[in-house]
Specification:
The protein is of the alpha/beta class. The protein folds into 3 domains: about 90 residues, Fumarate Reductase Iron-sulfur Protein, Chain B, domain 2, CATH 1.10.1060; about 180 residues, no CATH class; about 140 residues, 3-Layer(aba) Sandwich (Rossmann fold). About 50% of the residues lie in helices and about 10% in strands. It has a 4-stranded parallel beta sheet. The chain has a 4-stranded parallel beta sheet with strand order 6-5-7-8, sandwiched between helices. Helix 3 packs across helix 6 and helix 23 crosses helix 24. The longest helix has 17 residues. The chain starts with 12 loop residues before the first helix and ends in a 14-residue tail after the last helix.
Length: about 425
């Protein structure tokens, strides 16, 4: 493309050239549906990025606003007939903006907190103590609306922290994650049990680190590449599949080959599997004490980023007593999107409201998803709507579906808001 500045390396000209501005993505873009602004649509953002690429000047604040407002849910990739790699374009654009206006040091430092497992574990333990003490109920009544909404997303520890344990003869290697190991420890242990019942030995390298997805989404490309190199080295002692339980992490790990562009990174990316791809239905088969209506919510980075929709549903259907109920637009973003619900609360709140509305219309006994951010967002949204419908991770439900149903007393209570 003529006119593109030669010193720009974050955005690939051949990527933006694939967009023909047909507009077939518009109806699938959550921000365009809410804001109704062409600049907040995929093709509008690509137009802004093309303009960004023709100069080395600091970007106009309005351009930054429209690019930052993107959820990077990648629904446009599913809708696009030209196969535009929008997620890669957006991450490159944000990295380019960060290079040109390196003023977000505090934001970078805050995002990098996820790379410290002990700090996350301590925070999750404090959140658990805060909830058990009863202070959370008091805070919800006293806090202003915005702070109360943020407080509702606080992830309390789900059992003890998951501690990776290597195994020399492992058939699969479990990626521990950040939030998953600190706040979803029981889910990670459930994953190990589900995989072992599938006949697989499970190991997990102790020196693995954060996947770097949040850094990439925020334009912190070099830090994301640094974390990728560390993970490649950590898992280099085996050629076994790398099993992931967080959709956002899995999509980013699969992109390591593009991120680094070397053979080791491509080999690593080729090993990545979502847990639903590896667990076997006979091993996951459990029996419920009573029939249950189960709604499965597609995490964006599983459905759009990894094209995985069938496998989780097949595993759920393998449980006696499960009635898998459909929700409208199951793969439309719930508004979590990493830290988007903190940085863009108004848009996230509307997406959360829409998602909760579709869930309640299906009258489920339990909601199942495969991403921690989605789980926290849906729990908060359902609680705000007065519906005590449990939201659990797919692997935890497969491990012990009866426990996941313990919070409900009768089928279909969601429609009563009980």
């Amino acid at each position: 493309m003529e006119g593109i500045a030669t010193n720009v390396v974050s955005v690939r000209p051949e990527d933006v050239a694939t967009c023909v501005s047909c507009g077939l993505c518009l109806n699938d873009c959550p921000t365009y549906r809410i804001l109704g602004d062409e600049a907040d649509s995929p093709r509008g953002r690509i137009h802004l990025i093309r303009q960004l690429m023709t100069t080395t000047a600091a970007p106009d604040p309005s351009v930054v606003t429209h690019i930052d407002a993107c959820l990077v849910c990648r629904a446009c990739e599913t809708a696009c007939p030209s196969l535009v790699p929008f997620g890669r374009i957006m991450e490159g654009a944000r990295e380019e903006i960060a290079h040109r206006r390196p003023a977000g040091r505090l934001r970078a430092a805050l995002i990098d907190l996820v790379t410290h497992p002990r700090l996350l574990a301590a925070a999750a333990l404090l959140a658990w103590a805060y909830e058990r003490s009863g202070l959370r109920r008091v805070a919800r009544r006293l806090l202003p609306r915005r702070l109360a909404e943020m407080e509702a997303l606080l992830p309390a520890a789900e059992g003890a922290v998951y501690r990776p344990a290597p195994r020399a003869d492992a058939d699969v290697q479990l990626f521990a994650g950040c939030l998953m190991r600190s706040s979803f420890g029981d889910t990670q242990r459930s994953t190990v049990r589900v995989l072992e019942r599938s006949g697989l030995g499970v190991g997990s390298p102790q020196d693995q680190v954060c996947c770097g997805a949040l850094h990439a989404h925020a334009g912190l490309g070099e830090r994301s590449r640094e974390l990728a190199r560390a993970n490649i080295a950590s898992f280099s002692g085996s050629n076994a599949p790398i099993v992931v339980t967080a959709a956002g992490c899995g999509a980013h790990l699969r992109a390591y080959g593009e991120l680094l562009g070397d053979e080791a990174a491509r080999r690593y990316a080729a090993r990545v599997r979502d847990a639903s791809e590896v667990a076997r239905p006979p091993g996951a088969r459990r029996t419920l004490p009573r029939p249950a209506r189960v709604a499965y919510q597609d995490a964006c980075h599983l459905a759009h980023g990894q094209r995985i929709r069938r496998e989780p549903r097949e595993l759920l259907r393998g449980i006696d007593g499960v009635e898998l109920v459909a929700i409208a637009d199951p793969d439309r973003c719930c508004g979590s999107a990493g830290i988007y619900n903190l940085t863009h609360p108004e848009i996230a709140r509307e997406l959360q409201r829409q998602k909760v509305e579709t869930i309640l219309a299906a009258r489920p006994d339990v909601v199942v998803s495969a991403n921690p951010g989605c789980i926290l967002q849906l729990r908060a949204g359902l609680a705000a709507a007065g519906a005590r419908v449990p939201v659990v991770h797919l692997m935890r439900f497969l491990d012990d579906p009866s426990s996941a149903l313990g919070a409900t007393s009768s089928p279909g209570r969601a429609d009563r808001g009980a």
